[in-house]
Amino acid sequence: MATTTSTKDRNLLAVIGDEDSITGLLLAGIGHINDKQKKNFLIVDSKTQVSTIEAAFQEFTERKDIAILLINQHIAEKIRPTVDKYQQAFPALLEIPSKDHPYDPSKDSVLKRVQKLFGE
């Protein structure tokens, strides 16, 4: 019963991505700013420091209102050790492609974990 009550409040998507990915998702309606003025997205460009990306990843994975965290795969590569260590069910972590960087299944930490479970 405790897991039901803890997951029922998770109703947001969070995104760490490039400007094009974030813009598209914001136009689709995922944008949210909570009562503490915290956004549910981080736009990453060439000037964004790795520490900023890691801090956003930690914040989004610790928030209790986020169900799914989307991250561009090429950005996940910048913080790969942190992404690979993440083991929680909620928020679910999904690596997505971007306009300039196609999806590479061999780099996806979740897919690697699933393949390990099935002995592939």
Automatic annotation (TrEMBL):
Q: Where are the transmembrane segments?
A: none
Main localization (coarse): membrane
**Sorted alphabetically, which InterPro entries does this protein's record hold?**
ATPase_V1-cplx_f_g_su, ATPase_V1-cplx_fsu_euk, ATPase_V1_fsu_sf
Superkingdom to which the source organism belongs: Eukaryota
Q: Which residues form the signal peptide?
A: none
Q: Which UniProt keywords apply?
A: Hydrogen ion transport, Ion transport, Membrane, Transport, Vacuole
Would the keyword Transport turn up in this protein's UniProt record? yes
* GO MF term list: proton-transporting ATPase activity, rotational mechanism
Q: Is this entry keyworded Transit peptide? A: no
Compartments it resides in: Vacuole membrane
One Gene Ontology CC term in the entry: fungal-type vacuole membrane
The record's family statement is: Belongs to the V-ATPase F subunit family.
Q: Which NCBIfam families match?
A: V_ATP_synt_F
Q: How does it assemble?
A: V-ATPase is a heteromultimeric enzyme made up of two complexes: the ATP-hydrolytic V1 complex and the proton translocation V0 complex.
Q: What is this protein called?
A: V-type proton ATPase subunit F
> Which species is this record about?
Guyanagaster necrorhizus
